[in-house]
Amino acid sequence: MKPMNKTNYSPFVLLGLSGSWETKVTLTLTFSLLYLGIILGNLFIVFLVIADSHLHSPMYFLLANLSFNDVWVSSTTVPKMIFDLLSEHKVISFQGCMIQICFIHIMGGVEMVLLMAMAFDRYAAICKPLHYLTIMNSKRCILFVVIGWVTGVIHAMSQFSFVMNLPFCGPNTIDSFYCDFPRVIQLACSDAAKFEYVVAANSGFMSMGTFFLLLLSYVFILVTVWKRSSGDLSKALVTLSAHITVVVLFFTPCMFLYVWPFPRSSVDKYLFIADFAITPALNPVIYTLRNKDIKISIQRLNKKGHYNRFC
């Protein structure tokens, strides 16, 4: 079969999430509520950090950027997934598929760098408290965000350039609810084996390398605290537990898919629901549940609202 004309690629068919009509209705309602929670929860954190001067610190600056990024991460896939659950024809154009892949990997790269920046922030706060404001100055915080976006773009484009030049001659069915490099490369009518190494060397190495660097940084912080406080790790564990939870939730699906980039089953699409829907919805809860500053800021906002109402 001859490859399709590169200027006239056929659309891709997404198989999406299977199940009975009742299951699909339930999933539609569930993911709609999750997406609403993602938008409201994460944008509320961004608003809170901007509005409350008491939260104008490096940690909350990075947290606001992470929340803003989570909104975009989920928005690349979840609305389309919700729409397709009740749709008979789950189709995405070639251009739409490429744009989705591009945004997924740009935002994924930004998220990884932000998580590393937040780990570095906790290291500076716990291990170098007297020099914290010097280490985590405003210029360095902005630099972390810029590095995140530059890393995300380079990370996405380095793989995107390969996919754009692949010839596709069918089939055009993707066993997932979103487009991504491993699934799309499988549809190419050229030898895709070499592209497996490109994905593994790029996304796989980046995911696994960042994950282990983050774990090592947390271990280093805990060991440092343990030595200084004669074995009392309770405060450090409370501080780091939210970060560790988010890191595990985010990186587990990434490593599963990209370290072995040619999936033979549909398990990966269910795992990636965690990255696109569950983790962005849980992040506002995880980062605020034990955070006294956020709780006080919410109380302060409520009091200000009551005061303005009666004045």
Describe the structure.
This protein is mainly α. The protein is built from eleven helices and three strands; from the N terminus they run βαααβαααβααααα. It has helices at residues 21-51, 58-75, 78-85, 94-127, 132-135, 138-164, 181-185, 193-228, 234-258, 267-289, 292-310; strands at residues 12-14, 91-92, 173-174. The protein has a three-stranded mixed beta sheet. Helix 1 packs antiparallel against helix 3 (78-85), helix 4 (94-127) runs parallel beside helix 8 (193-228) and helix 4 packs antiparallel against helix 9 (234-258). It is globular. The relative contact order is 0.14. The model is unreliable at 1-7 (pLDDT under 50).
Secondary structure topology:
Layout: E1 12-14, H1 21-51, H2 58-75, H3 78-85, E2 91-92, H4 94-127, H5 132-135, H6 138-164, E3 173-174, H7 181-185, H8 193-228, H9 234-258, H10 267-289, H11 292-310
Parallel strand pairs: 1-3
Antiparallel strand pairs: 1-2
GO molecular function: G protein-coupled receptor activity; olfactory receptor activity
Membrane topology: Multi-pass membrane protein
Domain G-protein coupled receptors family 1 profile: 41-287
User: Could you spell the SSE succession in H and E letters?
Assistant: EHHHEHHHEHHHHH
Question: Regarding quaternary structure, how should these chains be classified?
Answer: single chain
Helicity, in percent?
over 70%
* Mean of residue pLDDT values: 83
Strand tally: 3
Protein name: Olfactory receptor
Main location: membrane
Family: Belongs to the G-protein coupled receptor 1 family.
GO molecular function: G protein-coupled receptor activity; olfactory receptor activity
